[in-house]
Amino acid sequence: MKVTQVLAEAKETIISFEILPPTKGKSIESIYNHLNPLMEFNPAFINVTYHRAEQVFKKRSDGNFERVEIRKRPGTVGICAALMNKYKVEAIPHLICGGFSKEETENALIDLDFLGIKNVLALRGDAAANEKFFNSHPNGHRYAEDLVKQIVTLNNGHYMEEDIIDGAKTDFCIGIAGYPEKHFESPNMDTDIYYLKRKIDFGAHYVTTQLFFRNEHYYNYVAKCKENGIMVPIIPGLKPLTNKKQLTTIPRVFNIEVPVELYNEMMKAKTDADCEQVGTEWLLHQCRDLLKNNVPVLHFYTLGKPQVIYNVLKQLF
């Protein structure tokens, strides 16, 4: 079922999760162990991230170095199929521009269509680990809006090979990312909203936001989107703080604010367990406030700390 259909039929706020594929060498059991407790809360869908390949230099036997490409977290498509089979839940693969040609993207979309996957999240993706700025594949997309356009084109039955006549139409529901505190590359929020609307106008169906710790950022973002004619569902993304290191890493990686109140409480914590409790209480407060304001979904980035999410949901429902 498409995300938009799920939201249209929902009578109350629904739950969803996002997970990382395991690193290469680990089994899918690590995903099941991560999700099994959370499935108690009947998530409507589960997002599975996609990760671009990284280029590293490896020393050869002759002493010289060669550049090789590795993908540390493969398996997004297979994981989506496995989750749908095991849990009977909608799985949403991320599709990214970085590291993929247009032909590779088309082939991935064909695979997803054959598997009965009806939803995708279209993202530009991050810069490669060894690059300061984002660089696209030579034959790929530079911007997420171009990825959206390719998916819409395939939905209309048009393939890259021009000799394909009357091609089968796919039927993907397309999600995109939104940034309540603006994307770090946008000069201002108005510009950020302008490009968000372009993606909607090109055919995206809903927005999932970057994580935030102050709900006012989300409410203001939704209001500004509506002022600019963006009327699609906007799903809030949520993640707990669980240790003091994140007080500096999360603002740097995600370009978001850690509120002074949350920072101060985390700094008072004496142990890791105390830090988790502070993060749990803050996330619980966020969720209760969002539920009062009838948000369509509580979408949790579960990365690494499913137990914290479980504890929050257990107190909410």
Q: What is the general shape?
A: globular
Termini separation (Å)?
24 Å
CATH topology: TIM Barrel
Give the number of domains.
1
Question: Which CATH architecture is right?
Answer: Alpha-Beta Barrel
Largest sheet: 8 strands, parallel, barrel
Q: Structural class per helix/strand content? A: alpha/beta
Query: Please, how many helices?
Result: 11
Mean pLDDT, rounded to whole units? 92
Helicity, in percent? 40-55%
The rounded Rg comes to: 20 Å
How many beta-strand elements? 10
Question: What is the N-to-C succession of helices and strands?
Answer: HEHEEEHEHEHEHEHEHHHEH
Low-pLDDT ranges: none
CATH class label:
Alpha Beta
Strand order of the largest sheet: 1-2-5-6-7-8-9-10
Portion in strands: 15-25%
